[in-house]
Amino acid sequence: MPKVSAVLIAQNEEERIETAIRSLAFCDEIVVVDGGSRDQTGAKVRALGARLLERPFDGFVAQKNFGLDHAKNDIVLSLDADEEVSHALRDQIERLTAGDTLPRAGFRIPRVTSYMGREIRVTDWYPDWQLRLFDRRVGRFTGDLVHESVHVEGPIGRLSGELIHRPYRDEADHLRRIDRYTSLWAEAAYRRGKRARPLVGEAAAAFAFFRNYILKRGFMLGGLGFRISRLNARYVLEKFTKLKALEASRAA
After folding, report:
1. Residues contacting 32, CB < 8 A, separation 6+
2. Whole-structure pTM over 0.85, yes or no?
3. Given this structure, which CATH class describes domain 4-165?
């Protein structure tokens, strides 16, 4: 029966890390890579019995692969500090690991975002498929400044149990994260040679709102669906606005 190592990365997550770690109690070990927290994240990790590794943050891919390299077991369940394993997902993982080996190289897991006290199963936010359970001997994290994902060599399955995601403490936090991630996206896009064409950002933002609110049924949530769709459109517009500003500054 293969043992499972849970691997998390965290930075200043003293308010949320306990929920994540407690949801992983079924794993054979829990490894937390701390990127330089200035709060009590590290103390909480130790108090909860998880193994704490400290490493200056230099990108999500590097942090997560560092955790993979220091896990004791080859079967890895990767989580972020703002996520939680649901009971249904826990049951599925325990059944999968009851045999001699993991039946696939990796498994994608649907992630549901909890926002303003509600679990959002419409808009672009759901199902947010994440490859998080995998054999590290054939899988590594890859990506850029903004997005990281697992690439595995071999067949990939899907689970139905969900990861619960609580990315935003409130709407102000949501706006701060939009500002941060759009800046990172613009920098990564500029490095890849992407350039902002006239009106592309405005058109993409308008379609993002239409896709989220109409095609992805955000209207079913009423006012909350409208807010989510509007914020998703704002994210798209800010990406291209910052790319255009970056072009101008580098050309000066």
Report:
1. 8, 9, 10, 17, 21, 45, 50, 51, 52, 53, 67
2. yes
3. alpha beta
